[in-house]
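Sanity check. The docking grid for BQF depends on where the pocket ends up, so I'm generating a full predicted complex first rather than guessing from homology. Inputs follow.
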Amino acid sequence: MAKLIDGKAVSARLRQEMKAEVEALKEKGITPGLAVVLVGEDPASQVYVRNKIRACEELGIRSENHLLPADTTQEALLGLIEELNRREEVSGILVQLPLPRQIREEAVIAAIAPEKDVDAFHAQNVGRIVQGSYRFLPCTPAGVMELIRSTGVAVEGKECVVIGRSNIVGKPMAMLMLHQNATVTICHSRTQSLAETARRADILIVAIGKAKFVTAGMVKEGAVVIDVGMNRDENGKLCGDVDFASVEPKAGYITPVPGGVGPMTITMLMRNTITAAKLAGGLA
Ligand code: BQF
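Predicted complex below; grid placement will be based on this.
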């Protein structure tokens, strides 16, 4: 029987501290502000954007929501970003991904001022993360690190396996674990011995994007299992990349979906927005 890692509870604790920090900053004349840009009407993206705006409201962070039609040109979006780069009351800029086909995501990410890049996707911020000299941490990996921390299980020296190699989760995740002195292995769709490799993990992080992909046979007894997946199962129910019913009896700790990594991603976005405001105000 695994212990459940409650992402909502860890989130609530961190947000309480961050709310106090926002109040203290406001007394110094610094109001953190987040600009959220959504192009098109993808229903999942709409939910994510709403979650981000709501978290800003909860913490007293100023937010603005820019909703653009699905046929927006890249030029128009880059124009908006230039304006947001210039405006002082905008501490952080978040462009919700994925973007419609006519817009190149790399061009948009490159256009965001690195000091306002609260997703930490800009090449300059990615470089800083690799070098270990970062200001912003990528939101989902940072949230996962906080969840692991909440278990009290040490990362140092452990066998950590990341399943998935995306630029948004898998790659930066591996880097953060490495910074904490873990021995890190990244598995992906072409990995030949995925089950055997996963079974070695003291800490297993799953971000592969396939519903219920990880079953008990791929998990070491007592492992910490972190599920980054966000899928719909055959009944349309939200589910992760881990087959929870199968893995839960074997794991030492496990995150649920929903209520695990998701809320932490949003909380870490709030942390980055506060950091961006401090940077702009000369406090970081
Ligand atoms: C929860 C995301 C895939 C692709 C793009 C809370 C969120 C989700 C779940 C949320 C996600 C996933 C976000 C829960 C933001 C996390 O209670 O379990 C919050 O809003 N997320 C995103 O912006 O883009 C994604 C997943």
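Relevant for the grid: The chain has a mean pLDDT of 97.
Also worth noting: The first strand starts at residue 3 and ends at 4.
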